[in-house]
Amino acid sequence: QVQLVESGGGSVQAGGSLRLSCAASGFHYITYLIGWFRQAPGKDREGVAAINPRPTGRSTYYADSVKGRFTISQDGAGNTLYLQMNSLKPEDTAMYYCAAQVPATSSWASANDYAYWGQGTQVTVSS
Fold first, then answer.
1. CA–CA dist 16, 4 (Å, integer)
2. For residue 65, what pLDDT is reported?
3. pLDDT at 29
4. Contacts of 107 (CB under 8 A, 6+ apart)
5. Long-range interactions of 47-52: CB distance < 8 A, separation 24+
6. What distances in angstroms separate CA 21 from CA 42, 48, 103, one per listed residue?
7. Helix/strand/coil for 111
8. I need a surface site. Which of 8, 14, 21, 77 has the fewest CB within 10 A?
9. What does the alpha-carbon distance between residue 97 and residue 88 come to, in Å, rounded to a whole number?
């Protein structure tokens, strides 16, 4: 049973930083894709970043809106996923979710392709 538990959200002023964590367990597949989505009130859930830790080398994916500001990573054992968020903007305010595709498909940014979700953690950026 795949389980995802997020932590690390909070409130910060514009220009500040936060690091989100996602404790992941129950992965028994060779290939999977794990990432972060966010959803602001009244908006669709959107893909923020994802990582595909393939044996031949990890691939990372980012939404254009966060490139250069956010960094996705995993610990060595692959048990914890991180999202380092720098230079935060008010438009980054949203509920952030950790999600996993098991096994991985080719569409990292499509929420419909993710079967497993965490409960979410709130990020609020004030101007």
1. 26
2. 97
3. 62
4. 113
5. 47/108, 47/109, 47/110, 47/111, 48/83, 48/96, 49/83, 50/108, 50/109, 51/81, 52/104, 52/108
6. 25, 14, 21
7. helix
8. 77
9. 17
